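Reply to dn_fold:

You asked what the input looked like. This is it:
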Amino acid sequence: MAAETDKIYEARPPPHIPVDPAAPPPQLKLTDAQQGLYDAVLSHFDREDYTIPEVENGALTEEEKSWLSCECLLRYLRAVKWASAQAAIKRLEDTLKWRREFGLYDRITAAYVEPEVVTGKMVIWGYDVDMRPGIYLRPSRQNTEESMRQVHFTVWCLERLIELMGPGVETLVLMIDYADRAKGPSFGQAKRVLDILQMHYPERLGRALIVNVPFILNAFYKLITPFIDPLTRPKLRFNPACLEEGLYTPEQLFTEWGGSANFEYVHERYWNSLVRLCAERRERFLAKWRELGAKVGVREWDVKCAIELEGNKGEADAAEEHPDVGSPAATTA
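and this is what came back:
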């Protein structure tokens, strides 16, 4: 049994990612045809007189402008398979309206969803080998009846996972463990969440890893699979060997999944650390986004690279100012 000092209770920031701002990731490199479609979408939303259609007070807020990043526009273009600029614009406007109506900017707060998390049934923690943040779902710890608040909590978690993505990272890892006779959601609830993921969070799922699936849930997944986008289906993995297959390093994976991270859910320690970490990252992102123009189409890559490089410089300056901190001599004194 691991010692108490080996236990982990708090959320962790993303690992440092070595970045070269002049070398953007492949998803930002476009063909001439793709660039033309992107430019058309950007010019539509970047107009000074643009308003979200069929919405009262439809002028874009600062949060909405920052959401409409270069990468966001490209994700929606890929989601419509580069069919046309108008197809992507419609999807984007549908999501802009949905985000307001669903309550992402006002109703769905940490305090509102907190009753859903007190047992640790959904835990945001760790990063895979591609630096994607992961979320562990443990249905056996379900503590509430099915409701819209459960759906709101899922969306709240998605937003926090996005805030924990470093430079060049646009996808997440979903980890579901059906151990301890866990039950899955109803078909209706699962379909409701799936529709939100596919319509309003396109190109966000990197992997979905599922273990300890009982027979009855195998049947459930077969039932819901036809509703899953064909491009998403290959991302579903059942009973993977996460370490052996090179999906995770041991220190970034919970012990029950074969890793060495001895995480224990203590609500008072985990929840506040996660909320604080994500709030700080959100504020840093917005501050840097403002410095880079505060407009539609600013690249997440540029914002996050600047933050990453500032963080590395701050750590280097601190090390020079306090050279003994963290050294073997200092830690053993």
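The longest helix spans residues 267-291.
Hope that clears it up.
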